[in-house]
Amino acid sequence: MTGVAGRRIVVTGAGGGLGREYAKLLAREGAKVVINDLGGARDGSGGGSAMADAVVKEIQDEGGEAVANYDSVATEDGGKAIVQTCIDAFGGIDGVVSNAGILRDVSYGKMDAAAWDAVQQVHLYGGYYVTHAAWPHFREQKYGRIVVATSTSGIYGNFGQANYGAAKLGLVGLINTLAIEGAKYNINANAMAPIAATRMTEDLMSEERLQSLAPEHVAPVVGYLMSDESTDTGSVFVAGGGLVQRVAYFASAGHTFDHVATLADVADNWSKIVDMSSAKEGKQVQTSQS
User: Fold this and answer.
1) Where are the domains positioned within the chain?
2) Is 114 exposed, middle or buried (0-12, 13-18, 19+ CB in 10 A)?
3) FRET label pair with 222: which of 25, 146, 161, 190, CA 20 to 30 Å apart?
4) Catalytic residue among 129, 164, 185, 249
C-alpha cells in the first residue's frame, strides 16, 4: 500500500473550507473518509447535517468513499462516536485530521470565561477526544497518522485571539508528546498551521490576500503527512499560497553559571543568554519510556 490508498481517515470540521479540501483530496487519492461536521456557524452556534452530507455527496459523485458524522468533537462521547463511525463504516481507522474549529475573537481585557472555554473545548479538547479515541487502535495495528490544525496565532500570537492561540499552541504540545509515545508503534503526529481563505479568516485579511490563499494549496501537504511514505513526526508546518515551511524551536548557546546566580549576575550575562547567533534547533529531553 502506498500513499493513502485504502486508508481509513477521519477529518473533523470537514463540511467546508480547509477540512472539505483535505477530505476531497484524501478521497481522490483512494482513502475512505469520515466527514465529520457539526454544521454550526463560525462561532460554533447552530448545527445540522447539510454541510457534512454535501461533502459526502461530492466525494461519492467523484467515485470516492465517504460517510458523514455529525457529532461534536468537544465532548468525550462525541470523539468516541466519530472514531466509531469510521470503524463501523470501514472496518477500522488509520488516521485522524483534527481540523474542527470555532472562533470567539475578543481582546483579552474583554474576554470572558465562556469565550475562553468554548474555544478550548473545540480545538484543544476536541483534538484530545478524537485522537485519544483512535489511539488504542493505532497502537494495536502499529500504524497511525495524526495531523492537528495549529495556527500562526498560537506560534506567533495575534491580537484578539488569546483563547484561540493558547488552544492552538496546546495542540503542538500534544503532538510533541504523541510523536514520542507513538514512535515504536509507527504512529506519526504532526501539526499544520494553514494560511488560507476560509470563513474563519474572511474578515481577518484583505480581499487581495484572500484571493492568493486558496485552501487547495494546503491540502496536498496534509495528504502527504497522512501517507504511508511520510516519516516526519513531531513537526510543525506552515502552508499557504503555495509556500510550505517547517517551524521549529531554537535554543541559544546561553550562559552557564558556576554558582547560584544573583540578580546582578543574570543582568551582567543577559546579552549572552539571549544571543541567538549560535542557536541550534532544540531537542526534546526524553524523561520516561513508560
Assistant:
1) 8-248, 251-281
2) exposed
3) 161
4) 164
